[in-house]
Amino acid sequence: MKLFGSRFEQIASIVRKDFLIGLRRRAAWAAMMMFALTAAAALSLSTGGIFIEEKFLAAIFWVVIFFAASAGVASTFEDEASAGTLPTLKLYAEAQAILFGKMIYVFLSLVALTIFILPIFLILFDVAVKNFFLLLATIFFGLIGISAAGTLTAALTTSASVKGGLFTVLLFPITLPIFLPAISLTEISFSGGAFESSSLVVAAIFDLILMTAASILYDYL
Amino acid sequence: MIVFDNVSLSFGRRELFKNISLELRGGKIFGIVGKNGAGKSTFLKLAGKILRPDSGTINFPPEKKIAAVTPEMKIYDNLTARENLFFFAKLRGKNLSDEKIFELGGRVGLDMKSFGDVRTENFSTGMRQRLKFAILLSVAADIWLLDEPTANLDDDGREKFFCEIQAAKSEKIILLATNESAEENFCDEIIRLPL
């Protein structure tokens, strides 16, 4: 129990530290928010007046989230590596605590991003959500998947010479199995159609698989 | 005790260590000395299991914890001195009170009343080194890896540093890589590289 207590404290400390630095630097957060806002506004203006099916709206929403997340998540390890603090962190904290600390920070950042962009998206594209609970549940599981995949990919690409490009190239195929059900469920939440609760269970299972894979692989990095 | 058993390590064609066998026991300060490029920093990384040898084994009890002051290991520029100290101590399960932080500052010659709430990006190199030194003293550790720890310290800083490591050595294994011949006098045993 002491081991878990100690690891939990380490995770909490890393999340708190990353938030403090994130709030002071603001660069990664600003990049995510601005990317999401610009993409949503540009797409809305270019499609102004045209009827867009719920399926396409759902796809646009997740594309905006994916690329905005890519702009911010990659920096979670990159900033530590370039500042020279990663070796210090690795010395004093357990590897798993670093991974899950970073993962939780990324997840909370993406929640903040979604809280910012979702109302703007709904207004810009004039979407009336029929099943709000389903939308929230889909976003919740989708963001967990992006956080797990994004954190592991960020850790993998930290030492690569072309970090930014490699990060997005690697992240896309890993997150694709999250996006397909997420887009489908988001469409249903917009249109109000019937949905199988098993779809959410599948999304949750995939998140669990991603987190487990990240946990196992991180020890070898 | 850290035990090197037939340890070899090469970088490309350069053989840095060949079949080294030695024991590093607690209660001593081991001075790791040698010319530039002799492998002092690499030796510390091997001893701390930060680097793996090409062959041979390095054993130390798995429950032993390491703390280090090395040029590669940086502190967080966007955090204050107090926040840095609190964060690293917390990672090792210690809650530092304000009194303890002031006390640590005093031991390393860093006025925490004036500089405790200043972000370390505004610190001089010497002040950062003193803060790294305070972090070293604050975290729970059995092994200290010190790579040219006094490089940016003034005379007062060096005196405080050696006073502290002498006081702490009975409970720890201390490895000190240095280029300063005067610092060899503070060591109990010298490991001269190349071996």
Describe this structure as you would to a colleague.
The complex is a heterodimer of chains A (221) and B (195). With 221 residues, chain A is mostly helical. Chain A has 9 helices and no strands. Chain A has helices at 2-25, 27-46, 54-73, 75-83, 86-92, 95-124, 132-157, 163-191, 197-218. The model of chain A has no long low-confidence stretch (mean pLDDT 89). Chain B has 2 domains: 1-64 and 142-195, P-loop containing nucleotide triphosphate hydrolases (Rossmann fold), CATH 3.40.50.300; 79-140, no CATH class. Helices cover 32% and strands 26% of the residues of chain B. In chain B, strands 5-6-7-3-8 form a 5-stranded parallel sheet. A 3-stranded antiparallel sheet of chain B has the order 2-1-4, with no helix packed on it. Chain A binds chain B through residues 6, 9-10, 13-14, 17, 20-21, 24-25, 83-85, 87-88, 91-93, 97, and chain B through 48, 50, 66-68, 70, 72-79, 83, 87-88, 90-93, 119, 139.
List keywords for this structure.
heterodimer, A: 221 residues, mainly alpha, globular, B: 195 residues, alpha/beta, Rossmann fold, 2 domains, 5-stranded parallel sheet, 6 helices, 8 strands, 32% helix
CATH superfamily of the largest domain in chain B: P-loop containing nucleotide triphosphate hydrolases
Major sheet summary line of chain B: 5 strands, parallel
Report the β-strand fraction of chain A as a percent range: under 5%
Number of E strands of chain B: 8
First-residue to last-residue Cα separation of chain A: 26 Å
Overall tally of domains of chain A: 1
User: What number of domains of chain B?
Assistant: 2
In short:
With 221 residues, chain A is mainly α.
Topology (elements, then pairings):
The complex is a heterodimer of chains A (221) and B (195).
Chain A: H1 2-25, H2 27-46, H3 54-73, H4 75-83, H5 86-92, H6 95-124, H7 132-157, H8 163-191, H9 197-218
Helix pairs in contact in A: 1-6, 2-3, 2-6, 3-6, 3-7, 3-8, 4-7, 6-7, 7-8, 7-9, 8-9
Chain B: E1 2-11, E2 14-24, E3 28-33, H1 40-47, E4 55-59, E5 66-69, H2 81-91, H3 98-108, H4 112-115, H5 125-138, E6 143-147, H6 155-168, E7 173-178, E8 189-192
Parallel strand pairs in B: 3-7, 3-8, 5-6, 6-7
Antiparallel strand pairs in B: 1-2, 1-4
